[in-house]
Design brief:
Number of helices: 11
CATH superfamily of the largest domain: FAD/NAD(P)-binding domain
Helix content: 25-40%
CATH class of the largest domain: Alpha Beta
Shape: globular
Structural class: alpha/beta
Strand content: 15-25%
Number of domains: 3
Radius of gyration: 23 Å
CATH architecture of the largest domain: 3-Layer(bba) Sandwich
Strand order of the largest sheet: 7-6-16-17-18-15-19
Number of strands: 21
């Protein structure tokens, strides 16, 4: 029986460990540097009774295995929601997706967007990067008023340095004919995408599912234990605290670039390829307010410069148990991206967030005195950026690791944003175990 070591208890690591348990493969161990499971999908309850996620996470899937896992682990302790997603711009609310609902824009801006869309349709230009793709597919108007400013906020990275082969399920594509048809009939389009309906745990925030999976694996997880170095020649890992362990197969779910830094004898050419593996960071700011929730919205997007955040979520609308008393309190979770191209200061982010909430009309100045809970987290690795050189780098790095029986999967282990959702990551963990033990095929991950 092969001994398998897993690095990390995020969705991919726990997905792999759970699958090993399902297959009754007992010879494995999971090392987690934190004192808790879940990775970026962990949740935290503060001393005021508010539960906070590390971002706007929800549960939706095309995968039957993941859906069965959710129901098995959560049982009936989850809620189902219809998406209520909106965009705040020009002092008005636009239904999401923006490009499908430009009928809500001021007339002059609507006409500008239509002209741009018509021009893009007639020119039919090829695109070499994401910025070009936006203009060539949606026109200069939609690019100017939403797609470019919003994506600059969320990626915190020049859009001309992003590729285009990640877009299919991440960006709603449109045609002039569709838009005109909806304008004439005055019908919104709000049903695009896989997350129109989603689930959310009744208790414990999004992290509840991973806490419960981790409980099923409690004797197989070593918390507060970081893998500081890997010796692939001797199949050995070195751990914080001076301990060591050996493996036959290693599954890494930690960020691929930092993992290569810890790989003893790693080829300098592979390390150089990490220059194309870029990521941003996100400051997550939670605000608990001693007032009844004023809205039934779920999450909202903000392309404007009058706030630092690109997205804000009414987290209390996902579950009443995310606040001490739903009738008396509500909570907002705000996400602000940063990078070397877009600086943000942690010491200032809370106050900037409050000012942004006031500027966008989500709270009033008087609401400051009703703030009873504050939550600020710095997510250093938040989004794996699909740079122009990413795929070239991955096509060289991953095969070299596999020659050493090392498999790197998950949001940052695989470094592929288009398969970085919660369900994608769990399935990557499950499928790599099937491949290792049963010679199964990986359907979610590919190069």
């Amino acid at each position: 029986m092969k001994k398998i070591i897993i690095i990390g208890t995020g969705p991919a690591g726990l997905g792999a460990a759970y699958r090993l348990k399902e297959l009754k493969h007992s010879k494995f161990i999971v090392y987690e540097r934190n004192s808790y499971a879940g990775g970026l999908c962990a949740s935290f309850k503060d001393d005021k009774g508010f539960t906070w996620d590390l971002g706007g996470h929800i549960l939706f899937t095309y995968y039957a295995y993941f859906d069965r896992l959710l129901k098995k682990v959560l049982r009936n302790n989850y809620l189902e929601h219809q998406r209520e997603a909106w965009i705040r711009t020009m002092k008005r609310w636009i239904p999401y997706p923006f490009q499908d609902n430009i009928m809500y824009l001021p007339r002059d801006i609507l006409l500008e967007c239509l002209k741009g869309l018509d021009k893009a349709r007639r020119q039919k230009k090829e695109s070499t990067d994401f910025e070009e793709w936006i203009i060539n597919n949606m026109g200069e108007g939609i690019a100017k008023y939403f797609m470019v400013p919003y994506n600059l906020k969320v990626w915190a990275y020049p859009l001309s340095l992003l590729g285009t082969n990640w877009i299919s399920e991440r960006v709603s594509k449109i045609s002039l004919e569709e838009v005109v048809s909806r304008l004439v009939s005055n019908v919104s389009k709000t049903n695009w995408g896989p997350n129109v309906k989603f689930k959310y745990p009744l208790y414990g925030g999004i992290g509840e599912i991973f806490r419960r999976i981790a409980c099923l694996l409690r004797h197989k997880i070593k918390y507060d234990t970081e893998v500081t170095k890997v010796d692939p020649r001797r199949r050995k890992v070195f751990l914080s605290g001076g301990k060591e362990d050996t493996y036959d197969v290693l599954i890494n779910t930690s960020p691929l670039d930092s993992f290569l830094m810890r790989l003893e004898g790693c080829d300098k050419k592979l390390l150089h390829l990490c220059l194309d593996l870029r990521h941003n960071g996100v400051f997550v700011v939670g605000i608990g307010i001693h007032r009844p929730c004023p809205s039934n919205k779920g999450w909202m997007y903000f392309p404007g410069r009058n706030c630092p955040f690109f997205r804000t979520t009414y987290l209390s609308n996902y579950s009443p148990n995310n606040v001490p008393d739903k009738k008396k309190y509500y909570s907002l979770l705000c996400e602000s991206a940063y990078s070397e191209y877009k600086k943000e200061d942690k010491s200032e982010i809370f106050e900037k967030t409050i000012r942004g909430l006031i500027n966008t009309g989500l709270i009033d100045k008087d609401d400051r005195k009703f703030i009873v809970s504050k939550f600020v987290r710095d997510i250093n690795c938040a989004y794996p950026i699909p740079t122009l050189g990413r795929d070239r780098a991955l096509r060289k790095i991953q095969p070299e690791l596999e020659k050493m029986d090392i498999y790197s999967r998950g949001r940052f282990g695989a470094w592929k944003y288009e398969i970085a959702n919660t369900d994608h990551s769990v399935m990557q963990g499950k499928e790599i175990v099937d491949r290792i033990l049963k010679k199964g095929r990986e359907n979610v991950w590919s190069l």
